[in-house]
Each structure stands twice: as structure tokens, then as C-alpha cells.
């Protein structure tokens, strides 16, 4: 079993590579929340940190006396922690070298406001977090659009490519004349063949835009009624009924179109992104826009078709057709990248072949999270009552509580709250580093009094 085996199942070896290369800056006092964030990031494989501390370091028994030594037991790589006092007046501090910044329990309102309102595109994403009593929040600030390469949707809907079939697929489907096959032979066909045949049948009846209802009707009336009256209990027929919507599914990629549009605006502004991964992703996204323009806005075919009850030889041939089509499309995409961004192939720090392949494979999952104006410090910027009270407490902007119970809950000391928020902030940091899974956009509020959490955009 590999080290990090379980988390590799989440973000893969390519995601782990970016985690191992990450350089995280944490602005924090010596507190439990900082320690929890540091511990959780170290466990994932991050080993390079800069700690800008906001006070003197004492020997709190709940805090690691020797951070680097204590964390090395959690990570086989030597953990490098550069600790230094933060200079709030240093406006020239170079933040660009960091992959992500995490600001923990900051109480210097003017400094934080100035940092969050910066407009330079090379600033890394910043996660601000604060806990008090049984309550806590995290807030993510992006300075440029953040592109998610692998959003890992819970439910992936297969695309069989029937709306734009290519010659090899059409030829394979045409090789089966279902009117001449026996019941046994029909039962061995993949359900994709049945759906394709029903789609063609419906179109031959003069229906220009067949619906899912039309396909189901054709399966009942034509396939069972005229072709295979004994096929009602065949597994491929049952699968065809279950997945009939795939035959009429049209490609929709609004999220991808939005990402391409945002990226084109960034390229036109000549703004350099703050990391190699962001720059590479931007070039590939631009190339994907060119690919779509040259291919009638058709997305790359998905090489991984779903399992189907059928004869294994027939299914294997069908699977190869989809995989060969994807390889053909990949070569087209590689040529577009090479023609438009030749410098990517000269960068020795980048496995461009692997990056292109990975990007193209997950092109259907790409999403864009847009930056927003910072409104944390405005009176009407935060409407959520707990969030507002946390902000007021953090920067001593007045303390008015909705009830005596909430006031008492604010005064408690709760390590479980620190631990919970530490895990959440580490999770969001990993999302930003790997460009996988959608990060919270943009605020998360935890209410330990009622054990509820809410996300909202401010």
C-alpha cells in the first residue's frame, strides 16, 4: 500500500504532487486553531510553511514547543517552518511566492482590509478564519478567477455521442440489423446499440427532435412489438429503458463556457497568474476554446463508457471505438496547444504531456469560481447574525448579542470548535492547491450551539 493511499483515491498522484510542492503562508498567533490547521495540512503532505506570528511565542502546554520536530512525526518529509514576526507596516512584503495564504484569528482590521482589497493578479488565494466560543467562520478571497479542473461531480451522466456520431461509431451501429437477429443475439447487444437503433427509428418516422418519451415508446412498441417480443426480461432491454435519456441528451457545458470566457479576459489583460499551475491551466483552457471552435462546439468524447450487459466481445469493440475517438481528439488538442503555446513544451519543471492528457480527460468537469468584492467590513456587508457577531468580536466593533445564551456561548473555550474549523480550513486549502473539488464560495459559518453550518456569498 502506498503512502497517502486513501487520499490518493480522492485527488490522485497528480494532486499529491502539487500538495508536496505547496508553500503555505500562515498568519497567526500561537493558538489551537493555528495548530489544528498546521497539523492537518502536514498530514496531507504539505511540508513547507512560513509562519508570520502576531505575538510572542510562549510555552503553552497545548501547543507544540518545537513545531518542526513535532510535525515531522506526521510527515516523512522534513517539515520546513520559517517563523518570523509579522510587520503590519511592510506593504512591500512579497506574498507571490506562496501557493495559498491562511490568516488565523487576525485582529488588525486595517492590515487585513488592505490585504484583501489588493488588485494584483499574482496574489495567492487567501483563507481568513476566526473562532470564538462555540462559533467560527472561514472566508475565501480570490484575486483572479479560480479554475477547478476536477470538480468530481457526485453524479456523472455519460455522453454516448449520439447527437454527433463519428464515422466509426455509425459504422459499428449499422453493422447490426436487428430485424435479422435471433432473440439470443439481440439479448447480447449492448444497450447503447438498442438506443441508437431506436433513435434512428424515431427519426425515420419524421420526428426531428426525438424526446426521451419517444425513445421509450419505440422500445415498447417497435422493439418489443415488432423485433423481439421475447425480450421484455432481457437485461440489455431493461438497461435501455433505464438509460433511454442518454440517447437524446444534448451537450451542455455552461460552466466550461464561463470558464473559457473568464480565462480569455485574463489573457487579454496580460496578467500573470501567481503559480506555474495557474499559468499552464490558463494556456490549456484557451486551447480548449480553440478546439471547440474547430469542432462545431462538440466536447471531447468521454472514453469511459458505462458497463453494459452484453456479449463481452461486442462490448469490447464498442469500448475501443470510444477510446480511439478520444485518442484522436487528444492528438488534435495537443497540436493546438503546441501551435499556440510552444513555450509550455520547453518548461523543464512541467510534464506538459501528462498535464494535457489530464486536462483533456477532465474537460467536462471544469468550473470557474469568480472573485468578488470584499464586503466583510461594511455594516451591510454581512447579514447573517452569527457571522456579524463573529466579525464584531474579531475586530472589537461592538458586541450586541441576540440572546443571553449566545453571549454565554461566545465566552466559552471550545477546542472541538477549533479542531472542526481547523479541519475545514485545511480541506479548503487543499482544494485550492490541487484545483480539485469546488471550494466554498465564499463564506462558511459554524454554529456549535445548534450544531449547524451554513455557506453564503458575501
UniProtKB/TrEMBL annotation:
Stored Gene3D superfamilies: NAD(P)-binding Rossmann-like Domain
GO molecular function terms listed in the Swiss-Prot or TrEMBL record: NEDD8 activating enzyme activity
InterPro entries, per database record: ThiF/MoeB/HesA (IPR045886), Ubiquitin-activating_enz (IPR035985)
Gene Ontology biological process terms from the UniProt entry: protein neddylation
GO cellular component, one term: cytoplasm
Transmembrane spans: none
Record-given protein name: NEDD8-activating enzyme E1 regulatory subunit
Lineage, top ranks: Eukaryota, Fungi, Dikarya, Ascomycota, Saccharomycotina
Record gene name: KAFR0D01110
Amino acid at each position: 500500500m502506498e503512502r497517502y493511499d486513501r487520499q490518493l483515491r480522492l485527488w490522485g498522484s497528480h494532486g499529491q504532487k502539487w500538495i508536496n510542492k505547496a508553500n503555505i503562508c500562515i498568519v497567526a498567533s500561537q493558538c489551537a486553531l493555528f495548530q489544528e490547521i498546521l497539523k492537518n495540512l502536514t498530514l496531507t503532505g504539505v511540508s513547507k510553511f512560513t509562519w508570520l506570528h502576531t505575538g510572542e511565542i510562549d510555552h503553552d502546554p497545548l501547543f507544540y514547543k518545537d513545531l518542526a520536530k513535532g510535525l515531522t512525526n506526521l510527515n516523512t518529509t522534513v517539515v520546513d517552518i520559517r517563523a518570523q514576526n509579522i510587520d503590519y507596516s511592510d506593504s512591500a512584503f512579497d506574498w507571490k511566492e506562496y501557493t495559498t495564504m491562511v490568516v488565523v484569528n487576525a485582529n488588525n482590521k486595517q492590515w487585513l482590509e488592505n490585504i484583501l482589497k489588493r488588485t494584483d493578479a499574482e496574489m495567492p488565494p487567501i483563507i481568513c478564519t476566526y473562532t470564538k466560543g462555540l462559533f467560527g467562520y472561514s472566508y475565501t478571497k480570490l484575486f483572479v478567477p479560480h479554475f477547478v479542473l476536477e470538480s468530481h461531480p457526485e453524479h456523472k451522466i455519460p455522453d454516448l455521442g449520439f447527437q454527433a456520431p463519428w464515422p466509426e461509431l455509425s459504422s459499428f451501429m449499422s453493422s447490426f440489423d436487428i430485424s435479422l437477429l435471433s432473440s439470443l443475439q439481440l439479448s447480447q447487444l449492448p444497450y447503447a446499440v438498442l438506443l441508437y437503433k431506436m433513435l434512428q427509428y424515431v427519426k425515420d418516422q419524421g420526428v426531428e427532435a426525438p424526446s426521451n418519451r419517444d425513445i421509450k415508446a419505440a422500445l415498447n412498441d417497435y422493439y418489443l412489438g415488432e423485433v423481439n417480443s421475447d425480450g421484455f426480461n432481457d437485461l440489455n432491454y431493461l438497461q435501455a429503458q433505464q438509460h433511454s435519456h442518454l440517447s437524446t441528451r444534448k451537450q451542455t457545458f455552461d460552466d466550461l463556457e464561463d470558464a473559457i470566457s473568464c480565462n480569455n479576459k485574463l489573457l487579454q489583460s496580460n496578467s500573470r497568474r501567481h503559480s506555474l499551475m495557474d499559468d499552464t491551466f490558463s494556456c490549456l483552457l484557451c486551447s480548449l476554446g480553440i478546439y471547440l471552435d474547430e469542432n462545431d462546439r462538440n466536447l471531447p468524447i468521454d472514453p469511459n463508457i458505462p458497463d453494459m450487459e452484453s456479449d463481452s466481445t461486442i462490448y469490447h469493440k464498442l469500448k475501443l471505438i470510444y477510446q480511439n475517438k478520444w485518442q484522436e481528439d487528444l492528438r488534435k488538442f495537443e497540436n493546438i496547444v503546441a501551435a499556440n503555446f510552444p513555450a509550455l513544451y520547453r518548461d523543464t519543471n512541467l510534464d506538459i504531456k501528462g498535464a494535457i492528457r489530464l486536462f483533456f480527460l477532465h474537460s467536462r468537469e471544469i468550473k470557474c469560481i469568480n472573485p468578488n468584492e470584499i464586503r466583510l467590513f461594511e455594516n451591510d456587508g454581512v447579514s447573517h447574525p452569527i457571522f456579524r457577531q463573529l466579525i464584531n468580536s474579531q475586530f472589537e466593533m461592538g458586541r450586541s448579542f441576540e440572546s443571553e445564551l449566545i453571549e454565554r456561548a461566545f465566552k466559552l473555550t471550545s477546542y472541538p470548535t477549533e479542531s472542526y474549523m481547523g479541519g475545514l480550513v485545511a480541506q479548503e486549502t487543499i482544494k485550492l492547491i490541487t484545483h480539485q473539488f469546488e471550494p466554498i464560495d465564499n463564506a462558511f459559518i459554524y454554529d456549535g450551539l445548534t450544531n449547524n453550518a451554513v455557506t453564503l456569498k458575501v
